[in-house]
UniProtKB/TrEMBL annotation:
PANTHER family: CYTOCHROME P450 YJIB-RELATED, P450, PUTATIVE (EUROFUNG)-RELATED. This is Cytochrome P450. Keywords: Heme, Iron, Metal-binding, Monooxygenase, Oxidoreductase. It comes from the Bacteria. Belongs to the cytochrome P450 family. The keyword NADP does not apply. Coiled coil: none annotated. InterPro entries: Cyt_P450 (IPR001128), Cyt_P450_B (IPR002397), Cyt_P450_CS (IPR017972), Cyt_P450_sf (IPR036396). The keyword Lipid biosynthesis does not apply.
Length: 393
């Protein structure tokens, strides 16, 4: 049997769920020498970590996120965090998302689906979900001239930096280039919206009513953060959701007829295949739990991907079941001070995309099961679909 000390990023990336189950059962607070951090795997403990920033701070010394993207809100706490978050949240609030972005999301999905319509099928990840999520993000952020290829590259570079525990210099070179390029694009956008304010994220940050206005570099760092999580996660979730709906014609039928059923399928997708699998934190002070002492400065990962499969919280946790009673208790968007700022936009993206896909491709069919990879960030690498019910491979 694999011991905690033997757990590698590669094994977790292939399939983290059997490892998570063992951790929950045998060593819920597990120190991994190889990863150099604690792994926290039970639902209640992940909640405790997320709700106790005075013990488990989001600020990390020598943070990979900070090296990759600059001083990002997700690695700050307290007043510094509130200042950055308050400056950004306007365009991402639930009501604003519905009123301001829904129609544009539908139009975006229509346009991409329209271009695919002449084909017998496609890779839903590369051909639909990725360009759709990239455009949704650049639209909301306020970088409309950015290409899908740029978003894919920047996002990939930042995510590689976030996971660069081994310090690979090639990863840092790629990251630095992306960091500089995003910085240039943001600086140009800041100059534009300073003259002509609009309702995008960048403009909202430029004109935020703060005692100490944000610098261009502070804005650029937060936008880099959005390129890492705000792009990757919606397309991961969309591909998983479409796959699960295609696997369950009864559920697909219900979700077509009833918006609440589609919303339930979206939430269950988040729980069942949690796109952001782990929340990095650091011990602010020594802390002892269940006989285990963690020392000030120790790093840890609160494993949301494991918590969302914890049988002591979710019955038959490995089963995809949008009818479960505690559907909304999942931790896919976290629940503490760092609760995902893009959660409403992400959900709306999924709703709009699924509606358009069904309208355009009523016979949509998955032709081979997707292959998943990743654990800090997990999602399908591709999803081959046929549009006219052309049959399974
Ligand atoms: C399915 C899609 C998404 C998932 C699963 C997701 C998940 C998460 C999670 C788990 C966190 C907290 C991590 C932690 O506490 O360490 C987070 C934070 C954040 N997310 Fe998302 N996210 C998604 C989409 C988006 C989108 C579309 C945007 C913006 C356009 C966005 C913007 C942010 C920001 C700015 C934060 C940092 C909040 C803070 O530190 O206060 N996310 N997200």
């Amino acid at each position: 049997m694999t011991m905690v000390s033997d757990i590698t990023g590669e094994a977790l990336s292939r399939d983290p769920y059997p490892i998570y189950r063992r951790l929950r059962e045998e060593e819920p607070w597990a120190w991994s020498d190889r990863l150099g951090l604690w792994l926290v795997s039970r639902y209640d403990d992940v909640v405790l970590v997320d709700r106790s920033p005075e013990i488990f701070t989001a600020h990390q010394e020598n943070s990979l996120a900070e090296r990759a993207m600059g001083r990002v809100m997700i690695r700050t706490d307290g007043d510094a965090h509130r200042r950055l978050r308050a400056a950004m949240d306007g365009p991402l609030k639930r009501r604003t998302v519905r009123e301001r972005w829904s129609a544009a999301l539908l139009a975006n999905a229509e346009e991409i689906a329209g271009r695919l319509a002449a084909r017998p099928g496609c890779d839903l990840v590369a051909d639909f979900a990725a360009p759709y999520a990239a455009r949704a993000l650049t639209m909301a952020v306020g970088l409309p001239g950015t290409t899908v290829e740029q978003v894919v590259e920047w996002s990939g570079a930042f995510i590689a930096g976030l996971s660069n525990h081994s310090g690979d210099p090639a990863v840092w070179r790629r990251c630095e280039l992306a960091r500089a390029q995003v910085g240039e694009h943001v600086a140009a956008a800041v100059a534009r919206v300073t003259r002509e304010p609009d309702d995008t994220v960048i403009s909202t940050m430029v004109h935020a009513d703060l005692a100490e206005p944000l610098t261009v570099e502070e804005i650029a760092s937060q936008i880099r953060l959005l390129f890492s999580g705000g792009f990757n996660e919606p397309w991961h979730a969309l591909a998983t959701l479409v796959w699960q709906l295609c696997e369950r014609p009864d559920l697909a039928e219900r979700s077509r007829a009833d918006a609440a059923a589609l919303d339930a399928a979206i939430e269950e997708t988040m729980r069942w295949l949690t796109p952001v699998g782990a929340f990095p934190r650091q011990l602010a002070a020594d802390h002892t739990l269940d006989g285990v002492t963690l020392r000030a400065g120790d790093k840890l990962l609160a494993l949301a991907g494991s918590a969302n499969r914890d049988e002591s919280k979710f019955a038959d946790a490995d089963v995809f079941d949008p009818d479960r009673a505690d559907l909304n208790d999942h931790l896919a968007f976290s629940l503490g001070a760092h609760y995902c700022l893009g959660a409403y936009l992400a959900r709306e993206q999924l709703r709009c995309a699924v509606r358009v896909l069904w309208d355009r491709f009523p016979g949509l069919l998955v032709t081979s099961p997707p292959v998943f990879a990743g654990w800090m960030f997990r999602g399908p690498r591709e999803l081959q679909v046929a549009f006219a019910g052309a049959g399974r491979e």
